[in-house]
Design goal:
By secondary structure, the protein is of the alpha/beta class. Helices cover 22% and strands 29% of the residues. The strands form three sheets. Strands 3, 5, 6, 7, 8, 15 and 16 form a seven-stranded mixed sheet that branches. The chain has a six-stranded parallel sheet with strand order 11-10-9-12-13-14. Strands 2-1-4 form a three-stranded antiparallel sheet, covered by helices on one side.
Length: 306
C-alpha cells in the first residue's frame, strides 16, 4: 500500500509517498480502509522534527474517515474486547494519536485502537468527516479542563475562526457560556455565526475574562486578558506560559476517545457542529498539500484522498 512518511526532517520536500506492507490489526484494534484523512498543523510540526524521532521513518496523519476492513484477532481471554463493537464494512471516523509513529492516517490503510473509533457522521461525506476528530476532540477536552460555568463564566477563545478555535466557540456557546472570539478582521461574521456573543480583532484592554482558550498559541500575552485567579489553557502540551497573578495555566494534550468522538459526531449530525474543507489532494500530492499549508491563510482543512 501507499503511505506518506518522512525519513528526514525539513519542509514540504521532506514528504515522501512510499510503498509498504498493509498493517495487521492486533487484539482490540481495527484496520480502516482510508477514504479521507485531513492534514493538520501538527503534521507540519512532525515533518519539521518538532516532536523528535530523528533517524526513524515517521508516518504522517492523525485524522481518518473510512471503512473497517479488518478486526483484531480474539484475545487470550476469548473475547475481542473493544474491537468486538466493530464489524467489517462499518463506516467510521477515528483519531490515530501520536506524533512519532511508523504509519499514520495518510495512507491507504491504517490500524487504530478500537476504542478510538466512532461511527461516521450520516450527514457529511468522508472528506468532511475526516476534519472532525483531532480538532473537535482538542476543543472539547480543552473546555473540560477550563470547566467554565454556564451563565456565570466568561471565555475568550483566540484563533476563533480556526479549526480548533471554531469548534471551541461552538461547543462553549452550546453549553451556555458567554464567549468572545478573537479573530482577524473579515472573520467576525463567521465567528458570530458559531455563537460568539462578541468578536474582536484587537487585544482586549482589561483583565475581564474568567478563562482563555488559546487556540492561536499566543502564549504569555493572553494572560493579560484573564482576571486574577482565572484559567488559561493552550493547545500545545507543555508549552503553556508560567502562571501570573494566580492564573492557573495548562495545555491540553488531546487523547483518542471513541465515546467522546461519537458525541461530537452526533452534534455534527444534529447541525450543532459544522465542518470546513478548504481543498482536497490526492495522496501522491501530499507534498503539495504541505506546501499549501505552509503558505498560510487556509480557511478549513486540507484533506488527502487515497
Amino acid at each position: 500500500m501507499r503511505a506518506v512518511v518522512v525519513n528526514s526532517f525539513g519542509g514540504p520536500e521532506a514528504v515522501e509517498v512510499v510503498e509498504t506492507e498493509v498493517p495487521r490489526p492486533g487484539a482490540r484494534q481495527v484496520r480502516i480502509k482510508v477514504a479521507a484523512a485531513s492534514l493538520n498543523p501538527v503534521d507540519a510540526g512532525v515533518r519539521a522534527g518538532v516532536f523528535g524521532g530523528a533517524g526513524e521513518r515517521i508516518g504522517l496523519g492523525w485524522d481518518v474517515a473510512g471503512t473497517v476492513d479488518a478486526v483484531g484477532a480474539v484475545d487470550a481471554a476469548g473475547a475481542a474486547g473493544a474491537a468486538g463493537a466493530w464489524s467489517v464494512g462499518d463506516e467510521v471516523v477515528a483519531l490515530h494519536y501520536g506524533a512519532v509513529k511508523p504509519l499514520g492516517t495518510h495512507a491507504e490503510y491504517v490500524v487504530v485502537d478500537a476504542d478510538a473509533v466512532a461511527p461516521a457522521p450520516a450527514t457529511v461525506d468522508a472528506v468532511h468527516a475526516a476534519t472532525l476528530p483531532l480538532n473537535a476532540l482538542t476543543a472539547a477536552q480543552a473546555l473540560d479542563r477550563l470547566e467554565p460555568a454556564p451563565g456565570r463564566s466568561s471565555l475568550l477563545v483566540t484563533g476563533a475562526a480556526g479549526a480548533v478555535g471554531g469548534y471551541a466557540v461552538r461547543l462553549a456557546a452550546q453549553r451556555g457560556i458567554a464567549v468572545t472570539g478573537l479573530a482577524r478582521e473579515g472573520d467576525e461574521e463567521f465567528v458570530r455565526s458559531l455563537g460568539a456573543r462578541h468578536v474582536t480583532s484587537d487585544a482586549v484592554a482589561d483583565r475581564a475574562f474568567d478563562a482563555v482558550l488559546d487556540a492561536a498559541v499566543l502564549g504569555e500575552p493572553a494572560l493579560a486578558w484573564i482576571r486574577d485567579g482565572g484559567r488559561y489553557i493552550g493547545v500545545i502540551p507543555h508549552a503553556e506560559p508560567a502562571s501570573v497573578r494566580g492564573v492557573e495555566t495548562g495545555a491540553v494534550e488531546v487523547s483518542a476517545d471513541g465515546a467522546r468522538l461519537a458525541e461530537l459526531v452526533r452534534l455534527l449530525d444534529e447541525g450543532v457542529l459544522t465542518t470546513r474543507v478548504a481543498e482536497t489532494y490526492a495522496l501522491e500530492d501530499a507534498a503539495k498539500a504541505h506546501a499549501r499549508l505552509d503558505e498560510g491563510g487556509v480557511r478549513g482543512r486540507l484533506v488527502l484522498v487515497p
